[in-house]
# Entry
Amino acid sequence: MSPTIEVCGVRKRYRGTVAVDGLTFTVRAGEVTGFVGPNGAGKSTTMRIILGLDAPDEGDALVGGRPYRSLRAPLTQVGALLDASAVHPGRKARDHLLWLAHSNGIARRRVDEVLDQIGLASAARRRAGGFSLGMQQRLGIAAALLGDPPVLMFDEPVNGLDPDGIVWIRGLMRSLAAEGRAVFVSSHLMSELQDTADHLIVIGRGRLIADTSVTKLLATASKGRVEVRTLRRTEVMTLLANAGATVAAIDAETLTVDGLTGEQVAGLLSSAGLAFSELRSHRASLEEAYMELTRDAVEFSGNGERAR
# Structure
């Protein structure tokens, strides 16, 4: 099976609400693809459609070129974590994985392998109802890995994980992609995706906003801006603004400057006798790039009112 996810012209409406509106993208092998968008953008609906939990009104969602519902042993072809709490609280962790393995013809030894891999071997005989959120997340990840599938989907996988767990899941996703698998990750934590994702799918109000590499997106968002560090912030801001630049303060001593090159900024400050301690190209964060992309696609504004 080709390790890909293909979403082709998918539309989905719930009563009077359009959840997904003509969405098309591909998740490729050998990459971690981040899936981001504001609340209500259609991310969860899209993932449910890929996994056959919801049917699209139009279009197709394929895993390895086939609809999920046509896969005879789906856990061996796509592993998914959508809701870590979807485990019977009275069932022991190992028993939960055993019945999943049995349903897809997966060897029992694989259960113990994934329990060890995700760090739950010592809790294998504990009931899931007594698990912390982080342990539930690890058990859900174990279920996704159970069939050793070429395609993996994770919805908010770092929820409940402690710092060590976050470092672990970041490394796990990178290693899975390095093995040639397609890894599709939905997350609200841009800082995590910046350190993990190769590619980014950005949607808003059910529509595709961007389908691009993280490197290209960050370069575009940086827009040739420069940062200058100075103790004479107010005077520097006034001088550069009068020269036609757009200037914003990052903190008490650091400014971002848009509209002038680093050489022009240095020349102006030197001519005016305004000292500065640092001048460098500005590198936008993924969060900054994301906020700029989705500014017009948020469902609700910061004051809780519906965005226009």
